[in-house]
Amino acid sequence: MFNVRHSWVLLAAGVFLASCSKDDDTEEIGNWISRSSLEGVARGEAVSFVIDNKAYIGTGYDGTNRLKDFWYYDQTSNSWTQVADLPGAARNSAVAFAVNGLGYVTTGYDGVNKLNDTWVYTPATDKWEPGVPFAGTARYSATAFGVAGKGYVTCGYDGNYLKDFYSFDPASQSWSKEESFSGNKRSDAVAFVINDKAYVVTGSNPNTGQTLSVNDMYMFDPASTAANKWTEKRKISNVSDEDYDNDYDMVSSNGVAFVMNNKGYIATGSKSGLTTNVWEYDPINDVWDQKRSFEGLARSGAIAFSINNRGYVGLGNSASLPFEDLWEFDPTATYNEND
């Protein structure tokens, strides 16, 4: 876990660490295409959510100031449009999710305080309204997702690494404490949703006594009738006696995740240094396959989203500067260095 107040001191020696080995054929599967860069200031530790085929991106830290501006990306025109600012405190390392056509932003860090306020965005009116404050402790670097008509927040850092788990029901306008996340405590994990099941993976916790990052992965099924709706999946490091994980090298933190064609993708983040690794998850077989590395500079604290089954990664920061670029990934295309 890297304290967000010092997010620009991220292992400078490893900032350009990338895994673009030409010796591995998997590195040639997939292609990244540069898209229109954010029209606002460059930043890391922002949030994103998707409503009606538009990706909304806001908040974050530009290396000097915490931010509260918001923008949406239009895939059809490959352009950005500014929308109303978040009314609450400027912040970084918050979380966001979309449920029933509304966007929710909660938690984060304003430079002094950990936060637990919630703000609700209505695209049709371009207005934010105060929402029900998050029911857990004020925190930053949590993980959130929306699934089956509810929003969920788990993990993060409030002075302690966390694994508590809360749901938000827009019908009753209330937060409820759920069965805790079954994996290790952590901050800076990622989540993705496939077929109404959420997967939480990666993240950091120095208190495990092992490594900075954690290697477990869990699936949450809101439709399950079991007392605990979390199911452990295979580890994301080479720990089995089988061959499937021989090349696994995805243990990391503060990366991003997105979904295309019912497969999950994790990209970028921090290992011993910053990374450009990209991995594809097959939920049917519970295995990962390495894809073409992210073609922007190595970074952590980026954002990712999917629109119309197309995945995007952008923004974030290196050890010394924030980014404003945006890249689209085609996991089946042949690498084209001119994109």
Characterization of this structure:
- The protein has 339 residues and is mainly β.
- The chain has a single domain, classed as Kelch-type beta propeller (Neuraminidase, 6 Propeller).
- The chain is built from no helices and 24 strands.
- It has a four-stranded antiparallel sheet with strand order 1-24-23-22, with no helix packed on it. A four-stranded antiparallel sheet has the order 2-3-4-5, with no helix packed on it. Strands 6-7-8-9 form a four-stranded antiparallel sheet, with no helix packed on it.
- The chain is globular.
- The relative contact order is 0.19.
Outline of the structure:
0% of the residues lie in helices and 36% in strands. With 339 residues, it is mainly beta. The protein has one domain: Neuraminidase.
Return the structural class. mainly beta
Summed up, the helix count is 0
Largest sheet: 4 strands, antiparallel
Shape: globular
Q: What is the CATH superfamily classification? A: Kelch-type beta propeller
Q: β content, as a range?
A: 35-45%
CATH architecture: 6 Propeller
Share in helix: under 10%
The succession of helices and strands, N to C, reads EEEEEEEEEEEEEEEEEEEEEEEE
CATH class: Mainly Beta
CATH topology: Neuraminidase
Write the layout of secondary structure elements.
Layout: E1 29-35, E2 47-51, E3 54-58, E4 70-74, E5 79-83, E6 95-99, E7 102-106, E8 118-122, E9 127-130, E10 143-147, E11 150-154, E12 165-169, E13 174-178, E14 190-194, E15 197-201, E16 217-220, E17 230-232, E18 256-260, E19 263-267, E20 278-282, E21 287-291, E22 303-307, E23 310-314, E24 326-334
Antiparallel strand pairs: 1-24, 2-3, 3-4, 4-5, 6-7, 7-8, 8-9, 10-11, 11-12, 12-13, 14-15, 15-16, 16-17, 18-19, 19-20, 20-21, 22-23, 23-24
